Amino acid sequence: MQNKISMFDYNCDWAMRDCNIEPRPSPGYLTREEVIQFYGTLGIDGVDIRDCYWGDCSVAQIKTMLDDNGLKIVSYENDVDLALPSPVERGKAVDKVKSLLDRTAELGAGLFMLFPGCVKEGIPTEELKKHMIEGLAACAAHARSIGVTIGFENIDYEPWRPLHGTSAQCREIIEQVDSPALRFILDACAALFVDEHPVEMLKALAPYIVHAHLKNSRPVMPGEKVQRTRPTESGVTLTGTVLDGGLVEIPAVLDELKKIGYDGYLMIEFQGEVDPRPALKYNLEYLRKQMEGR
Predict the structure, then answer these.
(1) CB 134, CB 90: distance < 8 Å
(2) Are 80 and 97 in contact (CB under 8 A)?
(3) How far, in Å, CA of 265 to CA of 262, rounded?
(4) Per-residue pLDDT tens for 155-213?
(5) N or C, which terminus of the chain has less Cβ within 10 Å?
């Protein structure tokens, strides 16, 4: 396999001093700039970055920072809830996505990663899905006009996965929006949280895959004290681990990606509680070895 490799700045969220997405019980120890500087030492091909970390920086500042560290931006990312019953509020959300798409294009990234909808108490999921798809269609039209692709993933986060967690849900969204500017980002590990097999999910969405995230999770052991966990739909509590330390058979995922002719980036993701730097170095070595001979 000759795929390029990228990393997500979210990999270091648990270690960051500020702007953590997942609240820490104690202060972190890395700045956002130190995360990018570390990635620049690894010899990877690019990075995927989140607007919640870099939204206060100008496009020029971000470009300079990445150039200084020899990194290419692969995707820009944010979550914007489009599953809104109010047409006025949904319109505002669509406008926000359009602005982020413009920023993505200015940054030189061809891919904007979007988490497009979460559930609300008292509102049927089917109704929310309808509103989300309507919003996505408007966003995809703008994305296509500026040469950017919107990608969304089979997310494992509980408030969002009832709308786009399973392979069937993700395929339905893509088919209903029916735009070449809306495509699928495979999160192989996230399939576990909706009790699907990663390879089967990959097969189901193969025609639409534009980006691939590789991470792994393992069950929390009895008596083990872990704070960063998520439950599966069947009630198993999982926590993040290195690529060869969990339930996802990474070699099988790579074999299937090769089989379908996937030639995009392989993005290494890590959601453990330990210092992410040694774990990411380990994951990079592991992935490179697995790619040899494939």
Answers:
(1) yes
(2) yes
(3) 9
(4) 999 999 999 999 999 999 999 999 999 999 999 999 999 999 999 999 999 999 999 99
(5) C
The residue type of 162 is P
Residue 59: exposure state from Cβ atoms within 10 A (0-12, 13-18, ≥19): middle
Six token digits for residue 106: 């200015």
**74 close to 154: Cβ distance less than 8 angstroms:** no
Residues in the chain predicted with pLDDT less than 50, given as ranges, are: none
Interhelix angle 125-145/87-107, rounded to 10 degrees, is 40
Q: DSSP E strands: which ranges in 55-208?
A: 72-79, 111-115, 149-153, 182-187
Distances (CA, A) of 33 to 43, 104, 125: 17, 19, 39
Q: How far apart are CA 51 and CA 10, in angstroms?
A: 11
Give the domain extent around 286.
5-291
CATH number, domain containing residue 38: 3.20.20.150
The domain total for the chain is: 1
> Cβ contacts of residue 9 below 8 Å, gap of 6+?
32, 35, 36, 39, 47, 48, 49, 50, 53
Alpha-carbon gap, residue 229 to 219, rounded angstroms: 9
Please report the DSSP string for 194-207 in residue order.
GT--HHHHHHHHGG
Span 9-20, pLDDT tens digits:
999 999 999 888
The closest alpha carbon to 35, from 67, 11, 59, belongs to: 11
Whole-prediction pTM value?
Answer: 0.95
